[in-house]
Amino acid sequence: xxxxxxxxxxxxxxxxxxxxxxxxxxxxxxxxxxxxxxxxxxxxxxxxxxxxxxxxxxxxxxxxxxxxxxxxxxxxxxxxxxxxxxxxxxxxxxxxxxxxxxxxxxxxxxxxxxxxxxxxxxxxxxxxxxxxxxxxxxxxxxxxxxxxxxxxxxxxxxxxxxxxxxxxxxxxxxxxxxxxxxxxxxxxxxxxxxxxxxxxxxxxxxxxxxxxxxxxxxxxxxxxxxxxxxxxxxxxxxxxxxxxxxxxxxxxxxxxxxxxxxxxxxxxxxxxxxxxxxxxxxxxxxxxxxxxxxxxxxxxxxxxxxxxxxxxxxxxxxxxxxxxxxxxxxxxxxxxxxxxxxxxxxxxxxxxxxxxxxxxxxxxxxxxxxxxxxxxxxxxxxxxxxxxxxxxxxxxxxxxxxxxxxxxxxxxxxxxxxxxxxxxxxxxxx
Length: 430
What we know:
CATH architecture of the largest domain: 2-Layer Sandwich
Structural class: alpha+beta
Number of strands: 21
Strand content: 35-45%
CATH superfamily of the largest domain: PmbA/TldD superfamily
Low-confidence stretches: none
Radius of gyration: 24 Å
CATH topology of the largest domain: PmbA/TldD fold
Shape: globular
Order of helices and strands: HEEEHEHEEEEHEHHEEEHEHEEEEEEHEE
Distance between the termini: 63 Å
Number of helices: 9
CATH class of the largest domain: Alpha Beta
Mean pLDDT: 94
């Protein structure tokens, strides 16, 4: 029995067990990876992972279970458990499954890894780093190729098959000179092929060069409210945090979102245009179907500061009476600005270049605090020195409303396409 046949069999078993509506999703992932530690190849392996998610609705009650053992004999007890979970759950009329859509097969990327090229790229990368960035210590470098196949079916006739393959590269590194060393930093990217040298992808060269050129880190000069240039590596996390407290299921259902009644209104600086583009050719990774079983589409989120959509799932839409989003968010594309980064930098009187931020989740109103790492102190339009770990605090909503410039340059991470942004009003504590 093929995986597709097994998924169909599982769906039928749920319906025969009494589910009014049912959903079955099988995912198979095959990963081939190469790991380096301290510059030496430590691991080459291929792993295969399967899981099956079963969901049943009965009398407005929902049960769901995730199985790691994918075989026919495991289905009977799993179906029984799903139905038991549903029976014991509280009824909620917002529970539902995706409506009918024509069956479709989606495909993207390569089907098998080029092992020789993987090894050549990793070896060349370590050699280039050693030659071009002598102060850099590569703590870890990881290159993998993952081929993932998903079968998504439900009792409304939804029948999607997704085949995706691609390479992901990630590094962790620090800079060291004598007894002085920087905080560790990390970055990476996703790509459909290995046509380019690894060092030329994502923000690798920029961050390695910054760390290699840097002096010994120092504290910021006291406590002050300053400007911040948020780098592409840092921006994605800020975007996820902002949207998570404003336009996702949780705050909109709970009624805590500051953007609850701001659709088609100005919520951010007119400098900011943000879209979620999971099926755009600009995004190498992305996704074809949403988590609740709809074919994904690209959508603007903020256009010139104006909020254009909420990111509600089908459940969130049913719960709030608002419109379901056409995707799950992520796959961010920010429209570039009209200034080069060098010009933006010249406008900073006092502040920091924020490369990495470590902090807890922001409060429902957007307040945040945490530590700026691998960052740089800026004064009078020039980078002065690297900072030791520095506390910063502010408000996410106010931060995005205060954006005064977006760079012409962008970094392509494969999963997102992001510029540098210049914002104001961050409290910096040296």
